[in-house]
Write a structure and sequence with these properties.
There is one protein chain. By secondary structure, the protein is an all-alpha fold. Helices cover about 75% and strands about 0% of the residues. Helix 2 runs parallel beside helix 8, helix 8 packs antiparallel against helix 15 and helix 13 runs antiparallel to helix 14. The protein starts with a helix and ends in a 7-residue tail after the last helix.
Amino acid sequence: MVCDTVRPDEVGQWMGWVVSSTNFGVIMAPSLGGLVYARAGYFSVVWMCAGLLCVDILLRVFVVEKKVAESFIAPETSATPDLPAHPGAHQESGTSISSEQGAVVNETLNGSVARYQDAQDRGEASVLKPRRLPLLLRFMMNARFASAFYGFAMFVIVLSGFDGVLAIYVKQKYHWGPIRAGTIYLTLGLPCLAGPLVGYIGDRIGPRWLAAAGIGFTSLLLVLLGFTNQDGLDEPYILILVLTAIGFSLVLIATPMAADMSVVVEQQEKDEPDAGPGYAQAYALLNCANAVGCMIGPLVAGTLIERYGWRTMNIVLTILTASALPPAILFTGGSLFE
């Protein structure tokens, strides 16, 4: 719906709103849930979630899509043809009107024959044309789209990994209760609100170096984060500072990658107009990247921190994040060599 509504040069900015709101909800859920659980109990959390779902359904009911809105816009009325100045005008120019009508009829017939011939040619061409792969597979075989898919998946792995272990870690190390442990997610959630600004910048300078900078900074910060559990660092201030910086660097990854997928779909529709729209299928793949990350992130982070510790977990997350840097430089925003 975003890509169908806004101009192509504003896709990044508005996709920033979409990505930011999604990530903000995922990250802030533990904070809000912990607060409600500590104050009102388990069932209050359930009723809160049910209420939010009802509000979401109500808002979806009132959404008016662009195609539906266009049907309510009255078309412009054509100008009324000029009437003759007096009744005898047609009689005075009867011969000229007859010749003009004949020319119009001939042009109409010739146009109909041409359109019929074109339709036949297209039909024959469609019969002879070999069957193409489904759009989903063609998207994944596109290097630019696959790079964005992989980068977004790595972003979700890091984010969901911290979502699964961070509260337990600060509870064990700093002996925080449910409310304070939930507030640690503010360090990752609040920077997500910068997504629209990152998208706006990406629309102006391109997504390649924004995404590359985000991946590079995130990798370096994850290495630093691994050293925050050293002896003598009993205060959480350094942990909070590094996590906040990671939150901002992750936004540099997510927004350009999501917007780049939309650009690939737009280009595909221009190159192959007969293939049909592909935005829904592209967004389905974006959801798949999100689902893969949400499945792998907590599993990897939880296993590593339990068996090998906080530092090893961050080293592995660093390697996974850094693996997205070469394809981001080479293919994000188009091939580097084009």
